[in-house]
Amino acid sequence: MHGTEHFDGTKLFLFLGNELLTIRRDHRPDIPWPGRLDVPGGGREAGETPTDCVLRETREEVGLILTPDDLIWQRFYNEPIRAWFFAAHLPGDRVQDVVFGNEGTGWALMPPHEYAAHAQAIPHFRDRLRAYLRG
Fold first, then answer.
1. What mean pLDDT do residues 84-91 have?
2. pTM for this predicted structure
3. What is the Cα 32 distance to its own chain's centre?
4. Alpha-carbon gap, residue 125 to 115, rounded angstroms
5. How far apart are CA 65 and CA 1, in angstroms?
């Protein structure tokens, strides 16, 4: 996996049924994209692989435990930070297992095409989601 040693974080396009799980970011001026619609993920901890990072962040942020086999797509992006993006599709009934963590102001499910066009979505995440959806 190219970029496994030199990356800053990960993000996950997590589908529960046909819906994308989104997180509303905190409204703090000291973080990038305050108040915007985000997806699970975050910064790398020492020595983590991209897979370890995205699985840990997903567990911490929304309480869902995924396995590496759940990750069906991955792509490395070098801008604005060096980050791995992943996608996973879980059954819709896994929504009952969501336990929102302490980052952000809430979570919601939305159709992926709605997120890809939403004015409050993080702009480069919209583009990356569109790339994933196009295949």
1. 98
2. 0.94
3. 15
4. 9
5. 22
CA distance 2 to 6: 9
- The 3 state secondary structure assigned to 47-87 is CCCHHHHHHHHHHHHHCCCCCHHHEEEEEEECCCCCEEEEE
Per-residue pLDDT tens digits for 12-53: 999 999 999 999 999 999 989 999 999 999 999 988 999 999
* Amino acid symbol at 116: A
Structure tokens at 83: 């980050």
Q: What are the extents of the domains in the chain?
A: 9-134
Q: Which fold has domain 9-134?
A: Nucleoside Triphosphate Pyrophosphohydrolase (3.90.79)
- Which residue, among 45, 22, 41, has the nearest Cα to 113 in the 3D structure? 22
Q: Is the separation of the CB atoms in 9 and 42 below 8 Å?
A: yes
Question: Phi/psi of residue 97, each to 5°?
Answer: -90, -5
